[in-house]
Write a structure and sequence with these properties.
The complex is a heterodimer of chains A (444) and B (255). By secondary structure, chain A is an all-alpha fold. Helix content of chain A is 74%, strand content 2%. Chain A has a two-stranded antiparallel ribbon with strand order 1-2. The two termini of chain A are 56 Å apart. Chain B has nine helices and ten strands. The two termini of chain B are 36 Å apart. Classes of the chains: A mainly alpha (444), B alpha/beta (255). The complex binds adenosine-5'-triphosphate and magnesium ion. Magnesium ion binds next to helix 1 of chain B.
Chain lengths: 444, 255
Amino acid sequence: MKEWLFLVRRRFRSWATSLLTWLHGAYVAFSQWVRLVRPRLISFLFDWIAWVYLLYAGFSVHHIRTSPTLIWRPEEKFVLPELSPTGWIVVLLVTIELALFVRSFGVSLGQRAFGVSLAPAGGSGTRVAFPRRVLHFLASHLALASLGLPVLVNPERPWHERVAGVVLVPRARGASRYRPWWTSAYALTAAVLIGVTVALGWAVTDIQLGALVRDVGKPARLWRGLSRPDLSYFFTPHPMETDSIFGALVKSLFMALLATVLGAAIAFPLSFLGARNITATGPVGRLVYALTRGFFNVFRSIESIFWASIFAIWVGFGAFAGTIALFLHTIAALGKLYSEQVEHIDPGPVEAATAAGGNRLQVIKQAVIPQVLPPFLAFTLYRWDINLRMATVVGFVGGGGIGLLLKNFKDGGEWTQVGAVIVTFAVTVWLLDFVSGWVRERIV
Amino acid sequence: MAHLVIESLTKIYERGKVRALTDVSFEVERGEFLVLIGLSGSGKSTLLRCVNRLVEPTTGRVVLDGVDVTRLSPRALRRTRRKIGMVFQQFNLVKRSSVLANVLTGRLGYVPTWRALLGRFPKEDLERARRALSRVGLLEKMYARADELSGGQQQRVGIARALMQEPELLLADEPVSALDPATSHSIMQYLEQMNREDGVTVLASLHFLSLARRYGTRIIALKDGRIVFDGPPGAIDNAKFKEIYGEDAEEVEVR
Ligand SMILES: Nc1ncnc2c1ncn2[C@@H]1O[C@H](COP(=O)(O)OP(=O)(O)OP(=O)(O)O)[C@@H](O)[C@H]1O
Ligand SMILES: [Mg+2]
């Protein structure tokens, strides 16, 4: 009975192994192909997109600057200019020509990014003669017209390169070290790209330095209020509010504390699942590892302010919504930090505990946790710091606490109250920074 | 019946396709002090780790007390591992933990999981830890942090940890390579004592032939993952030495 089970298992294992081996072989062949195709096809796409962007962005800057409706009218909805179909065709053709031209007669941005440049086939020197470059330029058109087929079919030695007697080789390091940057095509393109991007950004974000000095008097009331914080509602609530400043601050402090403690409690066990050296031992382990890390990464990239908006609607405005928002983000952020710490432990003690016959849980308790506990504590304290700051922002969108108070005072134009809240908060953050820094120093 | 039987053991590391061991076979009788020698990279560590399956052998069998270790389920493997003590070149102590906590690690195979998780080891184990520590002369360091100890003291903690397992077989992977000659001898004498007094079979890899000759009852030499010598210490003459370590090697004494 046991014997046949064993045989079946062994049979399955060998079958699974050969499947895995085949998949691995296919993967290796594919990545080899990609490695060859990349510097040719992908780098051309890169060049081409860069030129399209350059042309279109330049056109947009011009359009925004000359359009009378867009200037000085921030309330006007901003739209990027549109091109006519013929305009697009012109852009398409011009950019393709530009990309092919630079690729043939210099080192393009794409070639530089993938670390290749043209060389004569057969390894006779590094300089490519001008006629060969012209041939390469012309033949590239045909290669492109056939949708890159020569490259896809024979990536090692595509037809258009053979015709021109050139080959794309890895760029020699430091080959053009002494050439000024404006003489190389890729550096020039990069400089123009950066310039155009800044110009476009300037136009799109509607930067008007003049506005800074035009209405200096406007925010004066605000400045006056802020510079004279009114602390009379520090302990007794403002007639329009339910919380005093101190009460709201305590709420925020506890929001941050609760989110940190509960988040850390969940992140702690998860972090071992998300550590390659602990979990990723078999195929199942690798899956668990990938899922845990995926969860961390996804939830870390979703900001608390987003969760707060959702939970403010779900469970109602207030500190509860804010706490959940901070809690979710804390799990992911701490989980990732913790996992990385677990991955950096000394493997020796783990080996020793395993050799003594410990199971995974025992090994973690005896050999891993003692190594990671102090850094875990430091991360957690640091997170409390962050969470207190985030609690204000989260409060602004309905998460309660001192952020909500700040928003209400601001909306009511009570600038002396706003000043009081800001001063209170700044002092608190400063104190907390000081304390947590002191504690961190003690434990690590 | 031999205590430990290694049958045509081969290990190929997936990463880099390294052939670390090729068709290694030998038998070890109970109570032997077997020393593995060989150049760096000859496969000594791999061989030792295949015995308790810290490294999974590619093919071949490891038979301990008539039980094929390579076929054991994870659970049975853990039960077998507690009979196999191990001492490491880098000591492998948790540096931040106390000496006592490190020594208690040797009981993991015996205590229930919940006890280990709560850190509540049975009274007998604490008593056992005291005995083990006093045997290696470190009783007064019981509550010190492991990284406050010297290298030799740390290795003695490593030996105490192995003693906690009450092992029948002891694997020692270059136990004295990180230590000075005088300390090396004191450590080797603890291993010798375990071998002679407790009847523990010892499998130790050593870098110095002089140490191997002094402590081993039998020597196995590996070269590129194959056995090139298997016999009593006295049988290694100059020619054999050159075969194991290469033509240019000179023998160095550790006194
Ligand atoms: N985890 C691993 N992955 C891949 N190759 C490995 C691994 N561990 C060891 N090897 C290789 O296997 C071979 C044998 O290594 P091993 O550590 O067993 O030798 P050794 O005799 O203990 O050497 P040393 O005296 O340096 O400790 C070496 O070529 C080594 O590079
Ligand atoms: Mg070794």
